[in-house]
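Task: sequence design from structure.
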């Protein structure tokens, strides 16, 4: 079942936050009237648990609400796709200050070190130059970050363990292309 509606982006983010991580997708689409603000089109597919939003400028966001995973954003290089162990929670395409920005947010139960090593191999195999890495162990959590470049593209990766949910590791990958 597919529904189309117009709404305020802030309302979508609020609804997405309130519904995120649940496994009980509704039996049919839910429609919420939008308020004043940025308009756009929304596709809600309760069967596969995703919400897709395209704003007036063509920027796209896809959120997964039932844990089955969202899609990679259009234009994301297949060589940099997260491993199958990562469930993509949201993906986004946008233009910021004249640059094309693709973002992927995912979750996994893999360790930070395992995920970091795998992504570093992907970066190298895809022909990117790893220009910066960092990592830290913190009480109840940890962090790893990487920056890589290839021509007019910059990839920034952040991997973090949530201290409140030790089995979950969050992966954020942002690929920026200068115009």
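Answer:
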């Amino acid at each position: 079942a597919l529904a189309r509606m117009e709404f305020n982006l802030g309302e979508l983010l609020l609804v997405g936050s309130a519904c995120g991580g649940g496994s009980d997708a509704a039996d049919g689409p839910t429609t919420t009237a939008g308020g004043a603000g940025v308009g756009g089109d929304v596709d809600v597919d309760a069967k596969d648990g995703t919400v897709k939003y395209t704003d007036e400028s063509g920027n796209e966001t896809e959120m997964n609400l039932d844990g089955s995973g969202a899609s990679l954003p259009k234009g994301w290089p297949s060589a940099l796709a997260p491993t199958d162990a990562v469930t993509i929670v949201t993906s986004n395409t946008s233009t910021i200050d004249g640059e094309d920005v693709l973002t992927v947010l995912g979750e996994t139960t893999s360790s930070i070190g395992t995920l970091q090593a795998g992504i570093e191999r992907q970066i190298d195999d895809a022909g990117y130059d790893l220009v910066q890495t960092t990592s830290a162990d913190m009480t109840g959590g940890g962090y790893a970050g990487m920056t890589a470049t290839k021509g007019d593209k910059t990839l920034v990766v952040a991997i973090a363990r949530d201290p409140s949910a030790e089995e979950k590791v969050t992966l954020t990958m942002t690929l920026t292309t200068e115009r």
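Confidence is low (pLDDT under 50) at residues 1-38.
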